[in-house]
Amino acid sequence: MASRLRTRSLYNLDPLRWCILYTVRRTQLYLEDDLWKALHVRARQSKSTVSELVRRALREKYLGDATGRKEALLSAAGIWKDRTDLPDTQTYVRSLRKGTRLQRISQ
């Protein structure tokens, strides 16, 4: 029985049982003929769809490269660690959170 269980994998399951959810919104674009033709040619060449090409182009243009965003974030981390003109972070945060909420709740 153990060997039978080992051979059963995700790929052996009925495809109708698979469930992958995507949240997408449908939109309509008006394209000039030359752009429409270029997208269809490129889609055929890359064995992709026009929709996928448009999504990829929009991601690259407006979301940028994920690696680049991660590098930028990591390079900014700790940038102020050696500054002496700033108050102690923990004291500053506690002063922002200071209030009478606990006193009001206990009454």
What portion of the residues fall into strands of 2 or more residues? under 5%
List SSEs in N-to-C order: HHHHHH
Rough outline: elongated
Major sheet description: none
| Overall helicity | 55-70%
Number of helices: 6
> Which structural class matches the secondary elements?
mainly alpha
The radius of gyration computed from the alpha-carbon positions, rounded to a whole number of angstroms, is 27 Å
Unreliable spans are 1-7
Q: End-to-end distance, in Å? A: 65 Å
The beta-strand count equals: 0
Integer average pLDDT: 79
- What is the subunit arrangement here? single chain
Descriptive report:
- The protein has helices at 2-7, 33-46, 50-63, 66-76, 89-97, 101-106.
- The chain contains six helices and no strands.
- The N and C termini lie far apart (65 Å).
